[in-house]
Amino acid sequence: MSGTFEATAEIDRPVEAVFEYLADGRNDPQFSPRVQKIERVPDAPTAVGTVFRSTVKDAGMKTAREFRITALEAPGLIRWAEVSKNSVTASEGGYDLEPLPDGRTRLRIFNVLEGHGLGKLLVGLALAAARKDAPAFGARIKAAAESAIPAG
């Protein structure tokens, strides 16, 4: 079983700046409390093929995660795929960014979650939790980006 969750947000910063902020996955802990630590491999600007290795805490358990950037088209599209082997993984995910009037950005984030082994039984719970949190997740991204990116 697999399924998708998504969130949207309107960020009061220009699309180019929001793209740069989100392309650097090392910023994820600023809006995702489940991310305990994260590193970029290689330690160079993000490009197709870059891997982000993280330790996350879900339901009280820590797991190692690796996501590979599969597409990067400034300033509107970032895609990734999880390459780590966990019971529930994000087989595909991404950000779609669209410029809005007055230097603002519309952001859509999505992840396709898949269960593997025992995860086939857990993916429904993971999806329900992610969907329930989606509006708050979008709001956390908005707040973190607006805090990190200087205004005007």
Structural class: alpha+beta
Number of helices in the DSSP assignment: 2
Beta-strand content:
over 45%
| Fraction in helix | 25-40%
For the biggest β-sheet, the strand order reads 1-7-6-5-4-3-2
State the major sheet.
7 strands, antiparallel
Number of strand elements = 7
How far from one another are the termini? 44 Å
Mean pLDDT value = 96
Give helix and strand order, one letter per element, not per position: EHEEEEEEH
- Are there runs of 5+ residues with pLDDT below 50, and where? none
| CA-atom Rg in angstroms | 15 Å
Shape: globular
Task: Describe the protein.
It is a single chain. The protein is α+β, with helices and mostly antiparallel strands and 152 residues long. The protein is built from two helices and seven strands. Strands 1-7-6-5-4-3-2 form a seven-stranded antiparallel β-sheet, covered by helices on one side. Strand 4 and strand 5 form a beta hairpin. It is globular, with a radius of gyration of 15 Å. The termini are far apart.
Give a quick summary of the entry.
This protein has 152 residues and is an alpha+beta fold. The protein has two helices and seven strands. The radius of gyration is 15 Å and the shape is globular.
Helix and strand arrangement:
Blueprint: E1 2-11, H1 15-23, E2 35-41, E3 51-58, E4 61-73, E5 77-82, E6 88-100, E7 104-115, H2 119-148
Antiparallel strand pairs: 1-7, 2-3, 3-4, 4-5, 5-6, 6-7
